[in-house]
Amino acid sequence: MIEAELRARLARPVAVAERRDIADSTAQGLAAAVLVPIILDPSPRILLTKRATHLRHHAGQVSFPGGRIDAQDASPEAAALREAWEEIAMPAGAVDLIGRLSNIETGTGFLVTPVIGLLAPGVPLHPAAEEVAEILTLPLSVLLDPEQPKRQRMKLKTGDWRDIWVWPHDDHYIWGATAAILLDLAQRLRDHA
């Protein structure tokens, strides 16, 4: 998929993705933003991180670079770029922001704004060990597969069981808010194929 086609597909509106695996409206609504970086290789890839295991929220989970929107952040986009710099040393000037996906609530009380950004291949990235255990990618082609993602039953820390979305990856388990954001992105890409 070439850059122009990607921009065209993501510029159009889409219905909100099903969110049964995201917390109900009891979330406190702490404002957060994540960057959804798409690396523009000949076969585009989505950049993800694996969070450090000692973190208080979402420890060890696969996520997008991002975090709370601070008072000094002018917008969710500014917060997403700041967090990407802090977490993986992604220079803001290397990212071409092209839009947002639907806001989602997480089970830990965050209201997350996903911001889509295009990234040229070869930008050197370095995980901040205090926040990120690993940088990984997921082929964009996985999002175009109508058989993905899969629903899976998972036992939560509370002891409750919930059906969640899970995206395939050779080495990692992609679920929760990250899976919901990927589903939203996938629907935008599929609906305008």
From TrEMBL:
PROSITE patterns: NUDIX, NUDIX_COA. One of its GO terms (molecular function) is magnesium ion binding. Keywords: Hydrolase, Magnesium, Manganese, Metal-binding. Its cofactor is Mg(2+); Mn(2+). GO terms for biological process: nucleoside diphosphate metabolic process. Residues 29-160 form the Nudix hydrolase domain. Belongs to the Nudix hydrolase family. PCD1 subfamily. This is CoA pyrophosphatase. The lineage of its organism: Bacteria, Pseudomonadati, Pseudomonadota, Alphaproteobacteria, Acetobacterales.
